[in-house]
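Worked example 3. Consider a protein that binds nicotinamide-adenine-dinucleotide.
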Amino acid sequence: MSESAQRIAVFGAGYVGLVTGACFAELGHRVTVRDILPDRIEALRRGEVPIYEPGLAEILARNAERLSFATEVAEAMEEADIVYVAVGTPPTYSGDADLSAVWTVIDELPAVERRIVVAMKSTVPVGTGEKVRHRLAARGLAHVGYVSNPEFTAEGTAVRDFMEPDRIVIGAFDEAAGDVIAALHAGIDAPIVRSDVASAEMIKLAANAALMTRISFINEIANVCEATGADVVKVAEGIGLDRRIGKSFLRAGIGFGGSCFPKDSLALKQLAANSGYHFQVLNAVIEVNELQKRRVIGKLVARLGSLRGKRIALLGLAFKPHTDDTREAPAFVLAGRLLAEGADVVAWDPVAHADGLVGVEQVATVEDAVLAADAVVLVTEWPELAEVDWAAAATSMRTAVFVDGRNMLDPRAMHDAGFRYDAIGRAASNGLT
Ligand SMILES: NC(=O)c1ccc[n+]([C@@H]2O[C@H](COP(=O)([O-])OP(=O)(O)OC[C@H]3O[C@@H](n4cnc5c(N)ncnc54)[C@H](O)[C@@H]3O)[C@@H](O)[C@H]2O)c1
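Given these inputs, the predicted complex is written out as structure tokens:
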């Protein structure tokens, strides 16, 4: 072990914890990842990766010597200098973040005499660090350092995002603790933003809110395009080339989902509300996103009339391509709405599963999904969908209706393939048929 290498315990072997652990091992540190799920830890010890994340299996295998997995706190903490908290913070019924897993980690930390640093990777409300500090002090652990080191990786590109981030945010109560976390990232070439703990916590929530705002903004522009005869793809290109605006997150579609955006927007909304502030823009962003998913139903009804007894194929279950994560996935909302309308729903996804989607039949190929269907909805822009023989697919369907929820395919080509094709915010393409 080199002199600068540290011993790190990562709590949580989910999307963030595993990527964090594997990437710190890649940087030369010795890492133990702890989870409360024995099956997950057993699988990891056997060299199996319990989630689908491109590049993760390779980086775990490459650094197997520096990585170990544990179910027991004591085992993970044996020699740890740094503790990363990467447990889930799902929404409660009130929309606030559920911090129970975070508090379990904090309360179960052994009463070490050495100076360790706790780094928070889980997304938490502003003020959490302050509460953790008090809780540790109450246990006689005031010498334990605390740092907010939020995570900005995106599922599907998480390994690359971790190793080549746009920035690293480190919010600390004392400079020395911040220095420890900064040193841990030696080898990563990125600006480091040092701040107080509350600001670091807010940077994470505000970054997500900014991205969601762009998505709901372009979706509203798309809806107005649809009503007025413009094409949102051209509009996005035209505004995205403006350096003050930029191109990213300007793809109109059926709305965002995933394990972060929906819950983090609710958490920030509640955080503001609990502090007596009504966050108007964020409320609109959330509402636009809810309505956007449901607009697909209107498009299908316009083409097919009543959906009762109609067979609708959903292409894609994951909330975005290159992940198997279906948390808050638009496909699930759509499936629920379609089933409520009396439709038969069949779904395809190359890696994600329709677990918990009662009444939805999942099939192994796109061809099986579209066979005898009355309509297809492209929900997740998996690259393989660009390779499908759509003309053959159209002839295998009962009625060749296609709603491209991600504006992925070429309207003219889909029209020529025999579809009555609708996209999102592309009035001209809708007019083709
Ligand atoms: N998923 C993302 O892309 C992403 C990106 C940025 C930030 N985040 C944030 O990171 C956090 C983790 O997200 P995730 O997607 O990795 O969640 P996840 O649900 O995939 O993983 C959390 C893991 O923590 C484990 N766990 C629960 N209690 C534990 C304990 N006491 N000790 C050890 N392990 C415990 C769970 O069993 C689970 O395996 C959340 O706060 C999330 O908002 C996620």
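Take a moment to read the result before moving on. Residues 11-17, 34-37, 40, 86-89, 101, 104-105, 121-123, 151, 153, 155, 259-260 surround nicotinamide-adenine-dinucleotide (CB under 6 Å). DSSP finds 17 helices and 14 strands in the chain.
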